[in-house]
Automatic annotation (TrEMBL):
Residues 29-101 form the Outer membrane protein assembly factor BamE domain. Keywords: Membrane, Signal. It holds the Pfam family BamE. PROSITE patterns: PROKAR_LIPOPROTEIN (PS51257). It comes from the Bacteria. GO terms for cellular component: outer membrane. This is Beta-barrel assembly machine subunit BamE.
Length: 152
């Protein structure tokens, strides 16, 4: 085998190795036994927090809904990552703080891609350029603000 073939083969192997799929898991690690231990009418907020830990988030509109969220994503080299699975556990409490319902959703239906609307954040107020930002304070340091004099 010639040196060129060996080098070419090594280059192909290295190039294909760079295209491996990257899998990432984010969020709550669900333990089936702990989730099964949560019972409506028996558990309350404190016991749920001791069993599962703090929720991923609490509903902004209804503080009686706790969500535990986990997501697995997959990415090929430099391409954007895509969700492959999602597990959402929702625990609903009644007015007294006792568990009313435990629901689980393992579909990807509720995932939404949010695209930013441009690459710049608008800043409202004074519109200044590079030099105005650098040299804008010259003469302003130690200057007396307009208003009534202190001597009066």
């Amino acid at each position: 085998m010639s040196v060129k073939r060996v080098v070419g083969t090594l280059a192909i192997v290295v190039a294909l190795g760079a295209c491996t799929r990257i899998t990432d898991r984010q969020g709550f690690l669900a333990d089936q036994e702990l989730i099964a231990a949560i019972s409506p009418g028996v558990d309350n907020r404190a016991s749920v927090e001791k069993t599962l830990g703090r929720p991923t988030f609490i509903s902004k509109w209804d503080e009686n809904s706790w969500y535990y969220l986990a997501r697995t994503t997959s990415q090929l080299a430099f391409l954007p990552s895509k969700p492959t699975s999602q597990d959402m556990l929702k625990i609903t409490f009644d007015g007294a703080g006792n568990v009313a319902a435990v629901t689980r959703d393992q579909t990807l239906d509720q995932i939404v891609q949010v695209a930013p609307s441009g690459d710049k954040t608008p800043v409202y107020g004074r519109d200044s350029g590079f030099f105005a930002d650098i040299f804008g304070n010259i003469g302003a340091v130690g200057a007396v603000a307009p208003g009534p004099s202190r001597d009066q």
